[in-house]
Amino acid sequence: MIPPQVRHVKDALVREFTDHINLDDIANRPQQEQEQAFLSRALAALALRDLTGLDAAHAAAGVIDGQDDHGIDAVAVSEGGSHLWLVQAKWSDKGKAALDQGSALKLRDGLDHILSGRYSKFNARFQALAERVDGVIDNAQCRITLVLALCGKSTLDRHAQEVLDKACDDLNIDVPMLDYAVVGLSEFHRMVRLGIAERKANLNVLLENFSHIQEPYRAYYGTIPVAQVAEWYSQHGTRLFSQNIRDSLGLTEVNRSLVQTLVTEPEHFWYFNNGITVLCDSVQRSARNATTIGGPVELQLSGASVVNGAQTVASIHSGMRQAPDTAGAARVWVRLISLENCPNGFATDVTRATNTQNRVEGQDFAALDETQARLRDDFVLSLGKSYVVKRGEEKPAADAGCSISEAAVALACAHRNPEMSVRVKQDRLWEGDTLASVFGHNPNAYRVWRCVLISREVRKSLATLQKDHEGRAVAIATHGDLMVAHAVFRQLGPEQFDDPACDWDSVVTRVPQLTATALDWLIHHVDAQFGPTSYPVAVFKNAAKCRQLADAVLKDVAAGHSVPELPPEYRPVAPETTTRATPAVKVLVEAKRIADGTTLEFRPVTGPERKALAHWLAEDPRRGRANWVNNSNRPLLWTADGRRYSPSRLVAVMLEQARGYPPTAVQGTSRWFVPGEGSLVEIADRVRREEAS
Predict the structure, then answer these.
(1) What band does 250 get if pLDDT is binned at 50, 70 and 90?
(2) Which intervals hold domain Abortive phage infection protein C-terminal (predicted)?
(3) Same-domain pairing of 243 and 324
């Protein structure tokens, strides 16, 4: 007999997600198998809904469970594009679902594929989300949460926990990037009991030093101990932010700064922080202390949501976990606004207004520095160009000047200490000591502008070079871009850039070759020194590792050593030609390895392909599918138009339709996949090996 809690959750999943969960891939399976798959997928969607605030349809759209999911059942990206949730779900009619070591290892493998840029390993449902996932991984504020959604206990098997702890240890070296959360049956039952559609929280507030406003709308304001706020977050999680424009943004620079204040100077927290704004459907005041002037006052808030200060709330929770005795001494300012008797739309107006007021950032303080004023004048007088130092000012055209942010990144790469480049990756560029080092020794306009130009040339060269690399090599090129730029600058010797008479043309012409050499050496040394399974995104945020890499790359370049051959999987496979004795398609057709009518999925292999095709494929999912016909010339029947193509010709047609012009060459057999078996190239290679054995 199904336990009551499980039945309640099951009924809610059926009620809320029946119209949203896709089961097309298992439509021919037995009904019992389809039901279990639905419940597991819906459970993953419910976890995403509660953690992220997505509605049922959007949460379900993130479900990728099926062939080639690599242990990841659902994916979600935060609205700000800096937080990625990866869910593995386990359903049990008995409420005894658990995560074993094998499942944890599979989830880690999926994470490895994502962090190494091996997106083509994943199924078509993931491909629809790949561009957004890529954006998170490239974000300096990247935060990843592994979510274990279990219809069972909220605890993990020791061996499974060790796998996840090891993944966190490997990634969280200098900057916290990865964590995991277990959502068990008790948490899912709480979600259902509170109402899946209702994400607001009910709060008890003890408000100190308070005052209130009655007209035109009722509100209270004052201070509260941060321990109260931490308790809110512990009880309600991101449900606290149901009406916020964004949930807590993760450990950004502001969050780290707030946590640091809490654990070292709690008495200053109230002075350094703007506070929290809470909207609620109604507020009730307790009679306790009602006659005491200035409070404290006890308030019960129904349907509460933090609409401004999400980062403050999350930071308080983090600080209290780190040092509860110290942080607990802090107070925070709060505004509590009741929506009773407010006009329609007022809550939205408050939310929008409190989140769109101009926020002072590190760049704004940097703009006040006299060095920046001097550079702005020097740009105009020496170069006839613009140097924009304030946010909000219109950026000049590329050939007419640059902004302080572009200049700071370029100078960080040109600095002799590779740690400056790392600080950019850590989102610490605008910290005082970093900025002082980057703009130290009063660089003139010539040096700054020329460093910007070199950085642009390196980026341009890397964009070209990425077309000649695949998978992990592309991930290293993407996350190691600033380290490549650093290596190029060290070879050019930026000290000469100060001289107006510098032979600039001879300098610029060296950049493409220097970039290519530095990139290949960097790829080699990342694998050689930290292993081919290391995470590029973490490596290039680690100062010690980047110093080690910079030294190794520059040493080999200076010695004139030949770059070792990169692994074959790091280079695109050349398009098959008629000179090859046994092309992949011919091998497959002759072996009858793929049955007629088998559905194939298109999966982009390179970043430019993903960008070119993502929206185009999303407009019509039929464009990403084809059926196999055992014909050596045109084996793919495209579901989008009912016509037959060769694999390479079909990819060329797709790219031409999506972006307006065809590719120069493309290997189609590496881009069409039989789910669960691999690409046509991979399947053909297996056939060749079998025939040769």
Answers:
(1) very low
(2) 241-393
(3) yes
